[in-house]
Amino acid sequence: MTRATWPLNHGRPMVEVQLLMPGTAHRYTRRLLADTGGGTTAAPFALLLDEQDCLNCSESAGHMIELSGAYSGEFRVYVIEVRLPQLNFAAKTPVVGIERPPKGFDGIAAFRFLNRFSYGNFGRSEQFGLEPPDASRRSIP
Amino acid sequence: MFDPAEIVIPVRTVNVTIEGEVDTAIVPVDPSFEKVIRSPRRCGEKAMPSRFIVQEQDDQLARTINREARSDPASPYAGKFVAIGRGKVIAIVDSLDEAVTALRQALPKREEGLVIEASADYEGPHEIWMS
Asked: Is the pTM of this model over 0.90?
């Protein structure tokens, strides 16, 4: 079964993704807070990243979006190639550029992103992980 | 008269020491632009979006398309991804990949134009509650 797991970061669930800088071979690894409270499945964004990462790695700008809660106001959505090599995942992804990621992290993996996978600690309290959504269905008799 | 919203100021990142603290700063390549913008991660100031200056007409068109797509299921934009540039619709396609590809074919500079998910809720507000 293909599964990607990461140790908790400062006691919080973490996902590591790779960002591609357009037109180069440069890849940046970014640590994201896995946040099921980050937006809904209908939100037009999957990740929230430091705005400088968005400027460096975006292939295109997107529309403005209004946020509330931990981040309030209008923010720009960008389109970034995001990869999870452990899961053979690579996709152009809508990302919101924010000023201050959570302490100890480079950004947030929002619910729309997490919900593409099966997610959780998979029975081990010291980790957080993702696996393809159909993997868990195969294990249910 | 020029439109300030369309000015792109080339900048570069340098290491600086300010009041004894090592920091990174974003400075204009052209020294005639005297304003120095500090890295927001260190100093809490909002960074100028120096690479993506989206034209107001593109944002306005995106807003119009978004509202139409969300209010009218029969709209040609409903459920589609739309590439917009220089005040015009460039492509109406089925995926984000196709929209970005079409936009870049029409406008090769990545700071030009934008793409939207036509039926998505951009107005929100979308709540971010960190765990």
From this structure: no
CA–CA separation, A62 and B49 (whole Å): 13
pLDDT per position as a tens digit, A33-64: 999 999 999 899 999 999 999 999 999 999 99
Residues from B in contact with A at Cβ < 8 Å: 39-41, 44, 46-47, 49-52, 54, 59, 62-63, 66, 96-97, 99-100, 103-104, 110-111, 113-117, 120-131
Q: What pLDDT, on the 0 to 100 scale, is given for residue B52?
A: 74
Which of the 8 DSSP states describes residue B126? E
Nearest-10 Cα torsion for B69, B70, B74, B77: 20
pLDDT in tens, B96-118: 999 999 999 999 998 899 999 99
Q: What is the ipTM of this complex?
A: 0.86
Query: Chain A residues with CB inside 8 Å of B44's CB?
Result: 99-100
Q: What share of chain A is helix, strand, coil (3-state, %, to 5)?
A: 15, 50, 35
* Whether A107 contacts chain B with CB within 8 A: no
